[in-house]
């Protein structure tokens, strides 16, 4: 039986489908018996979705203009 | 919101349309800087990305679509950073993957590896509820900025730019197992921000 610590270590591999049949079976049998690890996995899935959505940064107008100006200067030289 | 690359938009880019190019810069520049930092470090990342934009602008007309535009862009940044490293006879940064795989503190578990402090219940049904909380978003942004450079680069490529693991590996020149550890740690660290916020209402 996997320990809870091992479940937390392997949770991304499980989510990404990077486990063989036996690893997946062991992982799932722990989850069936452990409410804390089921919660950990559910929260990790929610967090991945949330953080991926909210962390897309866009450049400021100043940053964009600085890049365009460099390109213009380089094209003219 | 990520940028949708339509055929029309791509055609505009290939003719060096300034508005289309500005939009491309707007949506990818910050992420490119984060990726460059993961390869070459903070000091030269901005400069490498500036050079990459010039190369992208000049070569867009030759883009053949063998990979996605995003992958092509990040590969140009990566090649620029690696060339710079070679010129300076420096090595690609080694991945810091010592310690526990998840990065969780040992005292969260007892000696048998069971939870000693179980994860708190968030009491939400969908991630949309999290998206409504602007203070939480600020906490997440702050923590994401403080992630180690390589963790942040892996996270940006995989979770924000949605690149395949093979692409992430090639761009950052890291092993598959190192990428998995770095990505998992970043995910767990950001999840813990939500844990704390749900428990205390603060970062």
Arithmetic mean pLDDT of chain A: 94
Low-confidence stretches of chain B: none
Distance between the termini of chain A: 67 Å
What value does the Rg of chain B take, in angstroms? 19 Å
Number of strands of chain A: 0
In oligomeric terms, what are we looking at? heterodimer
Major sheet characteristics of chain A = none
Helix content of chain B: 55-70%
Number of strands of chain B: 0
Portion of residues in beta strands of chain B equals under 5%
Would you list the SSEs of chain B in sequence order as H and E? HHHHHHHHH
Structural class of chain A: mainly alpha
The total count of helices of chain A amounts to 4
- Could you describe the largest sheet of chain B, including whether it forms a barrel? none
Q: Strand-residue fraction of chain A?
A: under 5%
Largest interface summary: A-B, 39 and 51 residues
What structural class should be given to the helix and strand makeup of chain B? mainly alpha
Low-confidence runs of chain A (pLDDT<50, min 5 residues)?
A: none
Span of the ends, CA to CA of chain B: 24 Å
Task: Describe the protein.
- The complex is a heterodimer of chains A (77) and B (203).
- Helices cover 79% and strands 0% of the residues of chain A.
- Chain A has 4 helices and no strands.
- In chain A, 30% of the residues are buried.
- The model of chain A has no long low-confidence stretch (mean pLDDT 94).
- Chain B is mostly helical and 203 residues long.
- Chain B contains 9 helices and no strands.
- Chain B has helices at residues 7-14, 18-40, 42-59, 69-87, 127-131, 134-145, 149-160, 165-172, 176-200.
- In chain B, helix 4 (69-87) runs parallel beside helix 8.
- The longest helix of chain B is centred in the last third of the chain and has 25 residues, at 176-200.
- The mean pLDDT of chain B is 90.
- The interface between A and B is large, with 39 and 51 residues.
């Amino acid at each position: 039986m996997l320990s809870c610590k091992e479940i937390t270590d392997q949770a991304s591999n499980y989510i990404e489908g990077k486990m063989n049949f036996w690893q997946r079976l062991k992982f799932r049998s722990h989850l069936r018996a452990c409410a804390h690890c089921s919660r950990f996995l559910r929260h990790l899935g929610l967090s991945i979705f949330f953080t991926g959505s909210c962390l897309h940064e866009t450049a400021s107008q100043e940053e964009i203009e600085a890049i365009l100006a460099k390109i213009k200067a380089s094209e003219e030289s | 919101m990520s940028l949708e690359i339509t055929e029309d938009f791509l055609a505009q880019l290939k003719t060096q349309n300034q508005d289309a190019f500005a939009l491309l810069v707007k949506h990818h520049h910050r992420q490119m800087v984060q990726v460059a930092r993961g390869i070459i470090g903070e000091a030269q990342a901005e400069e490498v990305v500036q050079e990459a934009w010039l190369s992208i602008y000049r070569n867009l007309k030759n883009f053949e679509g063998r990979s996605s535009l995003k992958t092509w862009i990040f590969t140009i940044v990566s090649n620029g950073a690696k060339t710079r490293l070679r010129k300076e006879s420096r090595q690609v940064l080694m991945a810091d993957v010592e310690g526990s795989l998840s990065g969780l503190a040992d005292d969260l578990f007892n000696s048998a590896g069971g939870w000693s402090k179980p994860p708190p219940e968030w009491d939400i049904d969908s991630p949309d509820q999290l998206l409504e909380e602007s203070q939480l978003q600020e906490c997440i942004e702050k923590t994401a900025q403080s992630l180690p450079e390589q963790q942040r680069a892996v996270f940006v490529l995989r979770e924000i730019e949605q690149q395949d693991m093979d692409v992430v590996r090639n761009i950052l020149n890291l092993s598959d197992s190192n990428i998995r550890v770095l990505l998992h740690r970043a995910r767990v660290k950001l999840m813990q921000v939500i844990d704390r916020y749900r428990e205390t209402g603060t970062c």
